[in-house]
Design goal:
Chain lengths: ~600, ~725
């Protein structure tokens, strides 16, 4: 989306693709930051009432501990942030475009300095930047892209703004010491001393960096949420000369709808199906939604554009629809806590009906109306309300809404399990599956389905594939196949060993903890369920079925239970992910749970020949 | 995010001049030119026939038209005169149009064809003398089902820039097609203008297979007679029909219909299998840029016999002047080695010379390519006065067209022949002198024998590199498996892995350059005081090596290790007398032992690599299988049977597999010996190219390998 958090974060995440997913930030990394000094000087406007701009001076001193090596220092900038000076020994700065993968176009750029650091000889890179638009000066990250021994950050607030500007500190650790003092001219100086800070590091299955990196929000440019709302809302007030086309289409599309729910569904699905997601975010387009008629004409838009179109279409058929600014889970704080544009990075639509609010995300194709993606559940939405605003939290929803249910009726044929598999998907499980299916060319969709339904077996034959409910308007998707799973059974003398694998979607796994520094973020909450029936071959009886497995902890609830009678063995299994965060100090515990679960899942049934 | 990258036939050049915003006039001129072309096949109402070629496709390309117009420009240029002393340009000016009309059948196709990136205007100059320039324009229109047409307004394109202030320059333009829906027909073009003084245009490739089937395809080239056109029709592509215009402009064109889409999947070699025309339009009259004397000056040359290019190569090798220091240093090292080892035979001397040459080139302040290395090596051998004949030659790997189909001296890999031994340098630091990656074996080479000074007087001689046998390219894995005493679902693996021959390529990433150089120094007897100062960070190398071994476990062993305790590279396989690349590792793995009541089931099949499973449409194949080399994989697993358990004999027997056919064999056998389960697997692939007629046989072996990966052994609890 939209409000590109990256450049407001003012980190030195190196994006030159020369330092990429870095190895663990141990103190024995060769290149470390010995000292960093970062000074933010807030400059008041002429009437001293507001922030006019913010000047930044940053010095980074690198050392190479063992061998000469190249170091990289980078700063982001764009239409609102300028790099006024950049220098480092023996090099000139490069200025490159740095557009995120999910964005078609924006004005994000980075200024990079790559220079040799000789062993034992510190080298310093310097930057001077200016935030020319104070709306974009929101966040200061305290971690760097190298291990940092010492860092000092100072924020200097001029006397005239002392009463309006303040800071909110997030994810601080004991190695950060803060102080506040007054300067000679009555300015307030916030000082942060950081020692031995790990470098910003991307790890597998970890929370979003932006939500966990120690950071400071500088607030006060917007006095409160109302001021912020006024600023954001101003971007949405532009008259739309083509609105009649939008209205006309909305009315045509809903001509046979008799209820509000039907109209909402019809229009939402239309937008999701026919408007491609293409994000253009340069300059004020990071905040300004495209006109509804433009999104309609172009048949593409980003989350803001899609929301803008959807809102207009809903209003055209008499529904009270409003825009809502929201932060995804990449953003930890609420608007009410930090009234700044850094508290949001997404836009959705909301339908107000009395006291109830229905949220609609135009970008969440294949998710039924009323289901919310986990990414926005629990997050605070800033909703239009004329000249004022409303704050409302997107409700948390039960993982039961996102269900992947497998029913199998199987029999043994040689070393194969043969039978039918019926897979029903709902909620986000459905959304993930249908989105992936539709990304394949028509000619290769069957291959995708074969792979999907045969997983995790090798050498499975899948045939007679039937799929229903895979259109955008459906709520449930069902896949039905005939399956022959080679190697799932072993006939050994009088015994048959059968591996049912009752839960086949791999979502529980162990994680490599060596050198890990971040918490683990498990997959989004969902439910896997299965119901297997295995016909016992004539002349055989059950010799062993796996013991019941049951676990219910703060992260998962799982149950695997086998039963049998003369004719069949049945297995009912379920797994629910409830809570996605595993703190690092409990990661070993998680790995143990994951292993136990995996072992329970892979236990085998033993059938023995009946001795007459 | 998906983006349809239009492959432009444009030169990648350094941009040093500031440019204005996107050139509206240029875009308009391009649109007028392209839309004005009368090509009736670009009909949006074209009916897509109901045929196996077009059914069940996300998109069908109705028409493609590639038009290339190239002129020679000679005019006065003051800037050039001031910079070079030459007053006239000797330039090639090209207009290249790629026009395409595609019917979008579904939303997937809409997504694929909705975004385009086009290179921005670029130029290169020395002082004020601009010697290269290119500019690209894009245009599109959407034909709706109701017959209406939406002209895409390219003023809505976004321009990506880099640089700052006055040095800010455009990099590319990005266009998102508005109003696109399934059922639409998208028509678009890329129009490219290039101007290059004294140099050649970049080579052009016209593929006859796209990602989607094509109903109509036309190529048309109009080229100034002063320039040289050389092209090849590859893999069954049709010839271009030639004619001459009144002004002497040469015209080459071809039209064809109903092109099947390109095959996708594993074991493919597009340069050897997909029809295409490769073309060079050359300014061989240039005297500022090197051209071999044998280069053709003016004319059209189609499918020239390769000897013409061999002649070019002989001239290039003859003419090239290189710094003497690399060969001198290598000769000195080799001489000292010979002195220290007086009983060396010729082969040993040559091999030492090869290693000395590589060493000398790797530590040199300049970087050197294969051509340089081949010349250095020949020079060193000349100084050492070795007895066998020495030659410098060229060859292509199977990833490229064969050497008999090259179109330029710049294309092939340069190598040496010494007697009947071949020396090819690649970046894999694991090959002995005379060894090389499998993709070269069986390939033809063209060799110039003798002194480089005489090359222009002799002809290259073709030779074919020998093919190897499967047992020369081996992978051997010995795994000793034991159960963790505290948790019998965890297995400890002590592995000893060995690669020989071309198979060493698969583990070459494990060898770091520092170790390689040190081993060369030790072998060549370079004293410590003369050794190259490695400026490497041992801690980082250790980190990288550990990461590589983790990857090795996933890719070669086939399972993600729970924990790696140790690893050691025993031999790098790069030195004479030491042909193996071997290493050991010690790790724990879990998830391979399942419980079945009191019994245990060990998924031994998962310890024999991760075979590629051929599924779905991939099982129906049209093209030959292209592998790198005949090869043999030998696995030997020894599993300590835990106390209180015995191996179920029937499960043991089930593992036994024996499949052999003309493509190779898959053999597996399990037995119990001295309280150990011993599993041996032998996989053999006899050919490096498997003809399509044998696809089912090849698949039999692959399927057997995949089936074996399911293999498990039951350990019964003893009462």
């Amino acid at each position: 989306m939209a409000l590109n958090l990256k450049y407001r974060l003012l980190t030195t995440i190196s994006a030159l693709c020369l330092i990429t997913l870095m190895a663990s930030a141990k103190p024995d990394d060769n290149i470390v930051l010995e000292n960093v000094e970062e000074i933010y000087t807030i400059v008041a406007s002429k009437d001293s009432a507001v922030i006019e701009k913010v000047k930044v001076n940053k010095e980074l001193t690198f050392t190479a501990q063992r061998v000469d090596e190249k170091a990289y220092a980078t700063e982001y900038y764009n239409s609102y942030i300028s790099v006024d000076k950049a220098s480092a020994p023996g090099t000139k700065p490069v200025y490159l475009s740095d557009i995120d993968d999910g964005i078609f176009y924006d004005d994000s750029k980075l200024c990079g300095l790559g220079f040799e650091v000789k062993k034992g000889k510190p080298a310093t890179a310097k930057f001077e930047l200016t935030f020319n638009s104070p709306e974009y000066f929101t966040t200061i990250a305290l971690a760097e892209s190298y291990y940092t021994r010492n860092k000092i950050v100072k924020i200097i607030v001029p006397q005239s703004l002392v009463s309006s500007i303040s800071v909110v500190e997030k994810s601080f650790q004991p190695n950060i010491v803060s102080s506040v003092e007054s300067g000679k001219k009555g300015e307030r100086i916030y000082t942060y001393k950081v020692t031995n800070m790990e470098k910003i590091k991307r790890e597998e299955a970890a929370p979003e960096i932006s939500a966990i990196v120690p950071r400071i929000y500088v607030i006060g440019h917007f006095a409160d949420c109302q001021a912020l709302y006024r600023y954001l809302h101003a971007f949405t007030d532009e008259p739309d000369p083509g609105i009649e086309e939008v209205n006309k289409l909305a009315q045509e599309l809903t001509i046979d709808c008799t209820t509000q729910e039907q109209r909402i569904s019809r229009l939402t699905h239309w937008v999701q199906q026919y408007i491609r997601y293409i994000a253009v975010e340069h300059g004020e387009y990071g905040h300004r939604p495209d006109l509804a008629s433009e999104v309609l004409r172009k048949r593409y838009g980003d989350c803001k554009g899609m929301s803008s179109l959807l809102k207009a279409m809903l209003i055209a058929v008499g529904i009270d629809a409003r825009l809502a600014w929201i932060g995804t889970r990449a953003i930890e704080q609420d608007w009410s806590e930090v009234p700044s544009s850094s508290s949001g990075n997404h836009m959705i639509c909301s339908v107000v009906d009395g006291d109830s609010i229905l949220f609609i995300d135009g970008t969440a194709s294949f998710l039924p109306i009323g289901n919310y993606s986990y990414n926005i559940q629990g997050q605070q939405a800033l909703i239009e309300n004329g000249d004022t605003y409303m704050l409302h939290r997107v409700p948390l929803q039960s993982p039961d809404n996102n269900c992947d249910s497998l029913r199998a009726v199987m029999a043994i044929d040689g070393d194969c399990l043969v039978g039918t598999l019926d897979n029903t998907l709902s909620g986000s499980s459905r959304m993930t599956f249908c989105s992936a299916l539709n990304r394949n060319d028509v000619a290769y969709r069957n291959d995708f389905l074969l792979s999907y339904m045969s997983y995790p077996r090798k050498n499975a034959e899948i045939s007679n594939i039937k799929i229903s409910g895979d259109s955008i308007t459906d709520v449930l998707t069902t896949l039905s196949v005939q399956s022959r799973e080679h190697g799932a059974c072993q006939h050994l003398g009088d015994a048959i060993y059968v591996e049912l694998l009752p839960l086949r979607t791999k979502i529980i796994e162990t994680y490599d903890l060596k050198d890990r520094i971040l918490d683990i973020r498990l997959p989004n909450p969902k439910v896997l369920m299965s119901d297997f029936t295995l016909a016992i071959p004539e002349g055989f009886a059950v010799d062993y079925i796996p013991e019941e497995y049951c676990i219910d902890n703060e992260w998962i609830e799982a149950h695997i239970a086998y039963a049998f009678d003369r004719k069949n063995v049945t297995c009912k299994a379920s797994l629910k992910i409830k809570n996605t965060l595993v703190p690092l100090d409990r990661a070993k515990e998680w790995n143990k749970i994951a292993r136990q679960f995996s072992q329970a899942l892979s236990q085998q049934i033993t059938l023995k020949k009946i001795n007459l | 995010m998906r983006r349809y990258l239009v492959v432009l036939i444009s030169i990648i050049i350094m941009s040093v001049s500031a440019n204005a915003a996107r050139d509206e006039k240029f875009f308009k001129k391009a649109a007028e030119f392209v839309w004005g072309m009368n090509v009736p096949q670009f009909d949006p109402k074209t009916h897509i026939p109901d045929s196996s070629l077009y059914n069940n496709e996300s998109a069908v390309i109705i028409a493609v038209y590639d038009l290339v117009g190239v002129k020679h420009v000679e005019q006065t240029n003051i800037s050039k005169y001031r910079t070079t002393g030459r007053a006239y340009t000797n330039a090639t000016e090209a207009k290249i149009v790629h026009r395409c009309m595609v019917k979008l059948m579904d939303q997937n196709a809409v997504e694929k064809f909705s975004e385009f990136d086009i290179s921005a205007k670029q130029s290169s100059a020395i002082n004020s003398y601009s010697y290269q320039y290119s500019n690209s324009a894009f245009g599109a229109r959407v034909h709706k089902a109701d017959g209406s047409i939406i002209e895409v307004d390219c003023s809505e394109a976004y321009t990506v820039t880099q640089g700052k202030g006055r040095k800010e320059e455009e990099v590319e333009h990005k266009v998102a097609i508005p109003g696109l829906e399934p059922g639409d027909v998208l028509e678009y073009f890329v129009y490219d203008e290039q101007w290059v003084d004294e140099k050649d245009l970049a080579p052009m490739i016209f593929p006859f297979a796209y990602a989607h089937p094509v109903m109509y395809f036309k190529i048309e080239c109009q080229v100034d007679p002063i320039l040289t056109i050389e092209y090849r029709t590859l893999n069954g592509a049709p010839l271009l029909m030639g004619s001459v215009m009144k002004d002497g402009t040469r015209v080459l064109e071809v039209e064809t219909i109903n092109l099947t889409k390109a095959e996708s999947g594993n074991w493919l070699a597009p340069n050897r299998q997909q029809p295409m025309i490769k073309m060079y339009i050359l300014n061989n009259n240039s005297t500022m840029v090197y051209h071999p004397k044998s280069a053709r000056r003016g004319g059209v040359f189609c499918n020239l016999p390769p000897v013409r290019y061999y002649d070019d190569i002989s001239h290039v090798l003859h003419d090239l002047v290189l710094p003497k220091r690399v060969a001198s240093r290598a000769t000195k090292i080799a001489n000292k080695y010979i002195e220290a080892n007086p009983n060396l035979n010729q082969r040993q001397i040559i091999d030492a010379a090869w290693l000395a040459t590589i060493y000398s080139a790797l530590i040199d302040e300049d970087s050197h390519d294969q051509m340089n290395l081949s010349i250095f090596f020949a020079d060193v051998l000349k100084k050492l006065k070795v007895k066998p004949m020495v030659g410098i030659g060229v060859i292509n790997s199977r990833a490229k067209s064969p050497i008999t189909e090259i179109l330029s001296w710049k294309e092939p890999t340069y190598m040496n022949m010494v007697g009947d031994s071949c020396y090819i340098y690649t970046n894999d630091l694991c090959f002995q002198p005379g060894e090389y990656i499998g993709d070269f074996e069986g390939e033809k080479a063209a060799v110039l024998w003798g002194d480089r000074d005489d090359f222009i007087n002799i002809s290259a001689v073709e030779a074919t590199l020998p093919t190897s046998r499967a047992n020369q390219n081996t992978f051997r894995s010995q795994i000793n498996v034991s159960f963790n005493p505290d948790d019998n679902t965890i297995l400890n693996l002590q592995r000893s892995v060995n690669f020989t021959g071309a198979n060493k390529e698969f583990a070459s990433a494990l060898i770091d350059r520092g170790r390689y150089l040190r081993e060369l120094e030790a072998f060549l007897g370079i004293p410590e005081k003369d050794q190259y100062e490695l400026k490497t960070d041992s801690v980082k190398i250790k980190e990288v090596t550990e990461k590589n071994f983790r990857t090795e476990a996933k890719t070669i062993l086939g399972v993600e290790p729970r924990e790696i305790y140790s690893y050691e590279i025993k031999e790098i396989g790069a030195l004479p007398g030491s042909p193996n690349l071997s290493y050991t590792t010690n790790c724990d793995v879990d998830n391979l032992v399942k419980k079945a009541g009191r019994d245990l089931i060990v998924e031994v099949g998962k310890l024999f690599g991760k075979p590629y499973e051929v599924k779905g449409t991939e099982r129906e194949r049209k093209e030959a299988v292209v592998r790198n080399t005949p090869s043999q994989n030998r696995y030997s697993l020894s599993l300590e049977i835990p106390e209180g358990y015995t191996v179920n004999d029937a499960s043991l027997q089930k593992i036994n597999t024996n499949i052999a056919n003309e493509c190779g064999a898959f053999y597996a056998q399990a037995r119990v010996a001295e309280n150990k389960l011993v599993v041996q697997v032998n996989e053999r692939y006899l050919q490096y190219v498997v003809p399509i007629e044998r696809w089912s046989k090849f698949l039999e072996l692959i399927d057997a390998s995949v089936a074996f990966s399911n293999a498990s052994i039951v350990l019964n609890k003893v009462n």
